[in-house]
Amino acid sequence: MKIKYIIFILYIFTILTGKNLFGEKNLFLQNINYKKEYLHSRIKSVIQDTNGFMWIADNFGIYKFDGYKSINFHNVQNDSKSLSNNIINNMIIDSKGKFWICTERGLNLFDPKTEIFKRYLHKENNLNTISHNNINTIYEDKKGILWIGTFGGGLNQYNPETDKFTHYINKNDSSSISSNIVNCLLEDSSGGLWVGTDNKLNYFDKEKRVFKHIQNNVFEKLYSGSNRINAIFEYNINEVLIGTNNGAFIYNIESHLLSRFNIYTVHNELLEDLHINTFFRDKDKILWLGTRGGLLSSNNEKFNLYKNINNSPNNLRSNAIQSILEDKVGSLWIGTYGAGIYKFDKRLNHFSNTIKVDNSMNELSHNLVFTFAKEDKKNIIWIGTYSGLNRYDRKKNTFKHYFHDKNNPFSISNNVIRYLYFDKKNTLWIGTDNGLNSLDLETEKFTSFINNKKKNNTISNNYIGPIYEDINEKLWIGTNGGINVFDRINNKFINYKHDSSNPKSIASNIILTFHEQIEKKKSIMWIGTYNGGLNRFSKGEFLRFKKKSSEINSISSNNVRVIYEDKESTFWIGTDNGMDKFNPINHKFKNFSYKNELNNKFVYSIIEDKNNTLWLSTNNGIINYNKKNYSIIKTFLMDDGLEVKSFMQDAYYQSKDGEIFFGGVNGFLSFFPFQVKKNKYIPPVVI
Hints:
Layout: E1 4-7, E2 9-15, E3 27-33, E4 45-48, E5 54-58, E6 61-65, E7 69-73, E8 88-93, E9 99-103, E10 106-111, E11 116-120, E12 135-140, E13 146-150, E14 155-159, E15 164-168, E16 182-187, E17 193-197, E18 201-205, E19 210-214, H1 216-222, E20 229-236, E21 239-244, E22 247-252, E23 257-260, E24 264-265, E25 276-281, E26 287-291, E27 294-298, E28 302-306, E29 321-326, E30 332-336, E31 341-344, E32 352-354, E33 369-374, E34 380-385, E35 388-393, E36 398-402, E37 417-422, E38 428-432, E39 435-440, E40 445-449, E41 464-469, E42 475-479, E43 482-487, E44 492-496, E45 511-519, E46 522-529, E47 534-538, E48 541-545, E49 560-565, E50 571-575, E51 578-583, E52 588-591, E53 603-608, E54 614-618, E55 621-626, E56 631-636, E57 647-654, E58 660-664, E59 667-671
């Protein structure tokens, strides 16, 4: 028998609905495409065998996938031991381990050991054969009986002992099946068999061998459209969920009441007229719906909708979800119509990505994120972007934008927002590409501070970087023209600039970051600069720490992006060449980047979690770092669930409950470090 070997190439994509148009959560998916010509495959069924192999059915046969490569089994002309047809509608592995495959030309029993297919085909004038060759679905009940739904031949019951089929076809009466086109089957907890056809829901009494029709006019009363039943699912005891071409319905078995199953998104939007293809409930009790309009999930009354969005390159390529399966690890496999199969690894879903996906007002104003600030005592996060200031209400899941308006003197002075900072009086300070701003949260009016060369004591430069309020309530502002300390009482700025003739001046006028060290109730300011290394300010003088190639204990780079002081008063310095450990007493640096993945990386932020490990945002992913043994725990990249790969200077924030936010060139992400899980599943060894 001819077997086709195909190497799988994994392309990593993300359903980016982050804060999408319909849901709050996002999924990280692997789109598994076996070959270019298979990118448009229709995946109607996927199963996993006892050895852990995945079996994927499409319109080119079935594929055995081991995670790296696949073997294709398909129809071979004039070979009766090959698959009878390549178009697969459904597959199951029954309780005895037998592998059944429904095709558009016959039912197949497959032996993976011998790789031989046994065909069950309809034969004219033989009532013991299957009633029709176009097989839609197969289902095994609790007693091990197989029920087969066909396209044109009604329902079949298969007896494996006699190897014979019993037919149940439409006889134009109320006790026979309502249609000979059977799309789906379900046995409920009490043993009742539910049959979904192209015109009605049927209940089959297996003892009396009669069908009860859930009357057509009930559906028509709720919705005047197609009554085709695509999926049946036991929602609760005594409740059956029904998926149709025109939405979902729920049937109460005790009261015999049929009602519409309303699907509301987390934004309280009612999704009507959805074409439902499949239902699935995973081990975490989350209900998943596969529709022609995307993927839905819910573990409460509201649903998240994940769908293809035209302006986002990395998401579902098809909104038509055909099949859903959960494997032994807990990953979901999602089959689509036209875009192959996706794998959703829940362990990779700890990063929540938020991006701008279209021109909606209720999303980020721009995907290039520079900075964050959180409003005290409220669940409001302010986000600075390349185009506008954003007020993000996490509870309501809404965005409000603020832009410069040349006709409004109380608008923000510029749309490029470089830095955000709340002072002790809860005033929001905003650094832009054209001046410093303060925002009155009640009136929503901005006050601008712009450099005026004709006046003394104005801000020295309009390109504003870091902002910090010290213990004496002095406001420090970093610019591309040195440091400015703002005297808010007299509305004056004190400038500190580089003076090439003064070695005790600041080493560079381009200021990147501030850090305040409190020593014996006295304040020492540390300043990170561009091309001027680390600077210490005390008693009106600056002490410089610059890279010296002749000294192994000097700083690793003169571009200092971030300064973090841990609980042991040790400094961790992020530079353009990794990260340094700095002792502020003996002034010695220790750099570990040369022997690990930090080498030549820009470290933009350093945050410590509750387990005392460090989280670093860089120009190439996120690094979790063990500061005790100076080792990298893990580097997180795109295939670990990041939509943002390259991060930005000052785009970081940690909430009181430990949630970390990093912003970058493609929106921002947030995560809880304790939720970042490692894969503890050990796959079986199959020889």
